[in-house]
């Protein structure tokens, strides 16, 4: 190999300095400028030592040369010999080149800086902010709910990092969410899996971090990679909440993020809510009210005055809040035995419309003993359920349903999906039959004998994109509702959809429950980002073990048509070892947005419950 020459080394060094950016280029331009000024000044002193007139020393010549280099037009006003004019013209010509280069470099450097700011590549300096990593349709729900939760606080910030243009993210969020009130939105463009990009978010000062599962074939792998990047960071680690699409990846995500990461299993949560809603009409509305920041919210309180009091007595302790359980050192328990004594290290779990409403009541409740009904528990009987369409969580839904129903129950699966009815071995209580059916076809639906079923579940078909799948679901719901009207049949209908914007359209079908899976997961992530201690509470609510939310006939608690206070309803439920948290007005069951559901009413509020109304309770099955 030939030896590297001095010329090659010099050129290599020069190329490296030129590649260092705008500052290096300006530095070289300054060197050239100094050289030009010195050369021109020297030539002037040599060829025209007496010019220009009135100049006494070399410093003045340097100054005149500098002015000609920076302002080439000055040569037009020069006077003197031909030699002097030639040298000044050459200096002005060189200056014209240098000034043009300088303007171009500054313009390009400024443009690069503006583009960098536009892309959102500067490090944020906020503290106590909520960071959202990744992008999905859940983004709009989370930002909306966080803005509501922080509406009373000044200077709150939501910071978003995703692989999208900064301005596009801000425009999309403002278009879908609207006014954020006092909450400021800060977006940055970058990869949440890259430590360098994570450093832009000032995570050490963040209040909490939400990791979203993107809409892609390998979304959970992306979430796990983000959790690995967060775990490997140096410094303070804020609480992290992450959403996963599949239950199969929970163990891997737990290993990647550590025990302090709260994982939300999207498939599992949506499946449980669909099953519970199919059996208890209004369940999805109750859960949405508890998950959002509009109505009743869940709080944890440690009231010293309730230490030593039983849980049953604590049900009447709040006037404008409803106790639903205890958070103990051993874990969360909702609707514990009524004789459970509240200890000093326990926290009471309550539902209230606002934090300021969680106050102890003055005096004892006013009860109407004559209105309280003593009713026995209803025996469970075999049920018939119709499942329309099929998707990836259908198997999980059927297995959860199998744990709820009485032995001898029947499930009919009607779908034209190639995987419909597969992998269902080991069911204990359900007998499953599968039929090939186009669920948007009226005649195909009528051939199923829908009137023979008590419950109908309409799933979103995962063979189509979310928009098309929701359109097909709407078609099925319209057919079912028309069949009910024409044939005089009645059965509960719960449907699964993707887009929250389609809820208003689905309300025309008067479906009993509409589960928007992305919205539910977004609400849950927002709740946990605000208060990580609620993770166990919501996990208990969605679990089939222990107490669950049930709308039950009001006539089992108080005499129909009698004016009573809600305290009387609470007392009647307490004697049945249940916790009453609200009621449903049957006359308003089709009126959005609450569909007749009233959670946490004032306990002194007078109300009249009829035969068709329901009391919403936490109870064992």
Explained architecture:
It is a single chain. This protein has 621 residues and is an alpha/beta fold. The chain is built from 19 helices and 22 strands. The strands form 5 sheets. A 6-stranded parallel sheet has the order 3-2-1-4-5-6, with helices on both faces. The protein has a 6-stranded parallel sheet with strand order 13-12-11-14-15-16. The chain has a 4-stranded antiparallel sheet with strand order 7-10-8-9. α3 crosses α4 (82-119) and α5 (138-149) packs parallel to α17 (517-530). The chain is elongated, with a radius of gyration of 36 Å.
Record field, number of beta strands: 22
The average pLDDT value, as a whole number, equals 84
**Inertia-based shape:** elongated
Radius of gyration (CA) equals 36 Å
- Residues in helices, as a percent range: 25-40%
Characteristics:
six-stranded parallel β-sheet, alpha/beta, 22 strands, Potassium transporter TrkA, elongated, 19 helices
Q: Which helices and strands, and how do they pair?
A:
Blueprint: H1 6-18, H2 22-47, H3 58-70, H4 82-119, E1 130-133, H5 138-149, E2 157-162, H6 166-177, E3 184-189, H7 195-198, E4 208-211, H8 219-231, E5 240-244, H9 250-257, E6 261-265, H10 266-279, H11 283-291, E7 297-301, H12 311-314, E8 321-328, E9 331-334, E10 347-352, E11 384-388, H13 394-404, E12 409-414, E13 430-435, H14 442-446, E14 455-458, H15 466-487, E15 492-497, H16 503-506, E16 513-516, H17 517-530, H18 535-541, E17 548-553, E18 563-565, H19 566-575, E19 579-584, E20 597-599, E21 606-608, E22 614-619
